[in-house]
Design a protein that fits this description.
The complex is a heterotrimer of chains A (411), B (255) and C (243). Chain A contains 15 helices and 17 strands. Chain A has 411 residues and is α/β, with parallel strands linked by helices. In chain A, the strands form 4 sheets. Chain A has a 6-stranded mixed β-sheet, sandwiched between helices. The longest helix of chain C is centred in the N-terminal third of the chain and has 34 residues. The N and C termini of chain C lie far apart (62 Å). The chains are: A alpha/beta (411), B mainly alpha (255), C mainly alpha (243). At the B-C interface, helix 4, helix 5, helix 8, helix 9 and helix 10 of B face helix 1, helix 4, helix 5, helix 7 and helix 8 of C.
Chain lengths: 411, 255, 243
């Protein structure tokens, strides 16, 4: 049981129950339809990974997902979970071992949160104590206080309800989870939070997940592997996000991913991953002669004033260098300040909105670690990265950093 | 013919009563036959239609207006609650006892009986009109009265008609005891079996049941006739679309 | 008020249905026949009809509820049956109650049983329609997710759909409750007594009419409140304050 692995213990292990999933030449043909809705779909999802099915509407992504738990019958071909065909089991039995999350959430309004979460354990005949413990565990996992278990869905916000929906799907610790646009009905701000929280959860639990979305950005963010489907249920490309961005297999994929592929890569890297510029760090009162020496060595010839702890205070103006010692005279404030762990895309966004070419980069203690400039960013874009991390790897690395820093898990 | 009627027992006798005149129980007058049945039916219809029409004229504007302004919901709900609790028999007899006999008094009692379903359905029907449609109408510059009359009323008409239909059926049923107020509806043979015989009583029951069904069918046809075409199409679409999920035993068509 | 044809008719009616009783003139001459004194003195006379009326209301409600719910569950599963059932229960409701009582009485005889059959028939349309609507109003996605989690058809019906339909079902039951009390007012036509019988035995006497009518109104309201109370008890989630 993977329940004992938590971020604090160190490197998470793959959920021991997570099973690999395989689509083998799966076809779905509706009677009377010209073309099949899903046409010989074949792909393999390794255990513990998130596979995102993405594509324009009518591409059969939801149909394909719903064939896994037999909500839709398979016309031809087979789907194997952990090597066993889904056709071998009775549908209701099969479904009790697959977590299922939908866009509209679908919490039962007449049951408490605790009862909602306990739905599948109840079906499987777990005893009361085991169920209660599991409910408490899950509430903690999704970051809701224990007394929420006796509340009703109508008393929760949309984001809280969606988290309960995820907890409910995880309750019986299934080896596989199906998620159909789970964050689609949430407003964009909370959606990003939920996505991040979910990725942190996945870093701990490492379930095999099939995730359907129409949003390519969400696919790149969430997926370990992405399957782009064309209309008519045809697989256009099945690859990691990095491969997809760098080597799109066809004009259709290129088009779907968007002409801003290069920019999308920025979502996969952190500030610490690229080569940062250096700028001379000076303190108020420092002898000007020493400063001048540093200037020529640095990438950026503008002095950055820091305090005693090394935290940035502002960029020094020329007047500050007139005289014997450095005087406090700023040409511009230190902002925008970027952190080492920031996703590159967000950092670029900060720079652009502040209308600034560069900004100081600080570490977890606030000390200057370098300077991020737009030029450095575009240089990083042009260099083909050998290995861009996947979403889960990003999440794991964040979890490790968080654990090391003792940071709070959920807002 | 008479043997078939005899085989049907009391019903046969009753049907015979409808078509053939016979002597009353006391032997003093002739009762039965199509002529008398028609007279009684006509009075019954007059009373029922009058009461329903008056009730509609009174209750419909009130219900529509309450629905339109959307306030005083408590009033509409209470009217229907109280209306339900008051028994029809009690109401009619109460009016006869306190106001006396005659067409007017019993009609008044029936009007009161008919008002609750009409007000409630008018209120619910108007409230049920899509708020966005009303908004759009307001945005296009229609006044309150115009919105109520040209937008809400037509869209609520099916529900309103349903209310009037319920009211009419209740009134026809209750008009059966109008003879207590000396208004000779089809209830006359029912409350006076000593004169008309059990055959007459049963005959009147059959006729009044048929009249009620006929009136209900007529109202249903009227209801269909006033349903805007767009709504009919919408309703049939949602019926044929069926449900969008699958049971473990069946496969689905999903979009 | 004394029309020549009126009193003899009623007198005859009395003899036919109820046997002889005192005339209005003998009681409570003042205040036109409505004296609290008389009501207080003779109240106990109303108790037996009142309890008859209670039985006439509750028994058909209970039986009718079971039948209508069964019909609705069947129609919910086998959709083809829906239009037929709806037409059938609607037709039952359209038959005027007095006619129904008298017609049925020729088939099943006078008495409590016949009245119960008639009253049960009248509860059908109200309860059947509300159970159907309640079930149909369960959002499709909630049923979808229940399916996806592995609940069987039967489990979905009893653990998800029916509980969610309870508020609508109870609303139908409430309306059926007061409606039944009203229609039971005519049950004496089937020879089943009840408060309606009291009214009809002496419709000219105001004290009688008022007392019996008020008791019926009281019963109707009480039954509705009881159903409402049961509804509140069975649906705790409706009371939860939404954020």
């Amino acid at each position: 049981m993977p329940t004992e692995t938590k971020a604090q213990d160190g490197a998470p292990t793959i959920g021991s129950d997570a099973a690999p999933l395989e689509f083998r030449e799966v076809v779905k043909h509706y009677p009377g339809a010209e073309r099949p809705a899903v046409n010989k779909l074949s792909l393999e999802v390794p255990a513990g990974e998130i596979c995102v099915l993405v594509g324009p509407s009518g591409c059969g992504k939801t149909t394909a997902m719903r064939m896994v738990n037999r909500m839709i019958d398979i016309s031809d071909g087979d789907i194997l979970i952990g090597g066993k065909s889904v056709r071998d089991r009775r549908p209701s039995e099969l479904r009790r071992e697959i977590g299922y999350v939908i866009q509209q959430i679908g919490l039962f309004p007449h049951k408490t949160i605790g009862e909602n979460i306990a739905t599948v354990p109840h079906l499987l005949g777990w005893n009361k104590q085991r169920t209660n413990e599991r409910v408490e565990e899950l509430l903690e996992l999704i970051g809701l206080p224990g007394d929420f278990r006796d509340r009703y869905p109508s008393q929760l916000s949309g984001g809280q309800r969606q988290r309960v929906g995820v907890a409910r799907a995880l309750a019986a610790d299934p080896p596989l989870m199906l998620m159909d646009e789970p964050f689609g009905a949430i407003d964009p701000i909370n959606r990003e939070r939920l996505q991040n929280e979910f990725l942190r959860l996945q870093a701990e639990l490492r379930k095999t997940i099939v995730f359907v979305t129409h949003d390519i950005d969400e696919a790149i963010k969430m997926g370990d592997r992405i399957a782009i489907l064309k209309e008519g249920g045809i697989l256009a490309q099945y690859a990691t996000p990095a491969e997809l961005l760098m080597y799109p297999a066809s004009p259709f994929v290129e088009d779907f991913v968007g002409s801003d592929r290069a920019l999308k890569r920025l979502a996969l890297q952190r500030v610490r991953d690229i080569d940062l510029w250096t700028a001379p760090l000076v303190r108020i009162g420092e002898p000007v002669s020493e400063v001048k020496a540093k200037l020529s060595e640095a990438d950026l010839e503008i002095p950055l004033v820091v305090d005693d702890q090394g935290r940035p205070k502002g960029w020094l103006s020329e007047r500050g260098l007139q005289g014997e010692r450095v005087r406090e005279d700023f040409r511009s404030p230190a902002e925008p300040i970027v952190e080492l762990d920031d996703i590159l895309r967000d950092a670029l966004s900060d720079l652009l909105s502040a209308d600034s070419q560069y900004g100081p980069v600080v570490d977890a203690d606030g000390r200057v670690a370098g300077v991020l400039s737009i030029e450095a960013l575009s240089h990083a874009l042009s260099v083909p990265a050998e290995h861009l991390p996947s979403a889960t790897e990003l999440a794991i690395s964040t979890a490790e950093h968080d654990a090391a820093d003792g940071a709070e898990e959920f807002a | 013919m008479t043997t078939i009627f005899a085989a049907l027992g009391p019903f046969g006798d009753a049907i015979d009563f409808i078509f053939q005149q016979r002597e009353s129980q006391a032997g003093t007058v002739q009762v039965g036959g199509l002529g008398e049945i028609w007279e009684l039916t006509w009075m019954h219809l007059k009373l029922s239609l009058a009461a329903t029409a008056i009730a509609t004229a009174v209750a419909l504007p009130i219900g529509v207006w309450l629905g339109h302004i959307g306030r005083y919901q408590f009033l509409a709900i209470s009217t229907s609650n109280i209306g339900r609790a008051v028994p029809a028999l009690g109401l009619v007899v109460f009016f006869i006892a306190f106001l006396g006999v005659g067409f007017g008094n019993v009609c008044l009692a029936l009007v009161l009986l008919a008002i609750p379903p009409i007000i409630t359905n008018a209120y619910v029907g108007i409230r049920g009109v899509d708020r966005e449609t009303v908004d759009a109408a307001k945005g296009n510059g229609l006044t309150g009265m115009q919105i109520a009359g040209r937008v809400e009323l037509p869209l609520a008409l099916p529900t309103i008609m349903a209310g009037i239909r319920i009211a009419l059926v209740s009134v026809i049923a209750t008009a059966t005891i109008a003879p207590l107020a000396n208004v000779d509806t089809l209830g006359r043979p029912i409350v006076s079996p000593n004169v008309y015989g059990t055959a007459g009583q049963l005959a009147a029951c059959i006729v009044v049941a048929l009249v009620t069904f006929a009136a209900d069918a007529a109202m249903a046809a009227l209801q269909r006739a006033v349903t805007p075409r767009g709504i009919k199409i919408q309703a049939s679409q949602s019926r044929s679309r069926g449900r969008r999920f699958v049971s473990p035993k069946r496969s689905i068509q999903s979009t | 008020m004394s029309d020549l044809t009126y009193i003899p008719v009623l007198a005859q009616l009395n003899d036919d249905f109820f046997g002889n009783r005192e005339g209005a003139a003998d009681r409570c001459p003042g205040n036109n026949g409505l004296c609290p004194g008389w009501i207080a003195d003779n109240f106990s006379d109303y108790l037996h009809p009142f309890w008859e009326h209670v039985l006439l209301s509750i028994v058909p409600l209970a039986i009718g509820f079971v039948i209508a719910t069964s019909l609705a569950l069947f129609a919910h599963r086998y959709r083809v049956a829906q239009p037929f059932f709806l037409a059938f229960v609607g037709a039952l409701f359209t038959i005027p109650s007095i006619a129904f009582y008298l017609i049925l009485l020729n088939i099943t005889g006078r008495g409590f049983g016949t009245a119960v059959v008639v009253l049960t028939a009248y509860t059908q349309v109200l309860i059947y329609r509300n159970v159907m609507t309640g079930l149909q109003e369960v959002p499709a996605e909630t049923v979808d997710v229940a399916n996806g989690m592995g609940l069987s058809q039967r489990q979905i019906l009893f653990r998800v759909e029916l509980p969610m339909a309870l508020p609508t079902i109870f609303a139908g039951l409430r309306i059926a409750a007061s409606s039944t009390v009203g229609i039971a007012g005519f049950a004496f036509f089937a020879g089943a007594g009840g408060l309606g019988g009291e009214i009809f035995s002496d419709p000219a006497f105001k004290g009688n009419v008022v007392t019996a009518s008020l008791l019926m109104i009281l019963l109707a309201t009480a039954l509705e409140l009881i159903v409402l109370l049961v509804q509140r008890l069975c649906t705790p989630w409706e009371r939860a304050v939404a954020t």
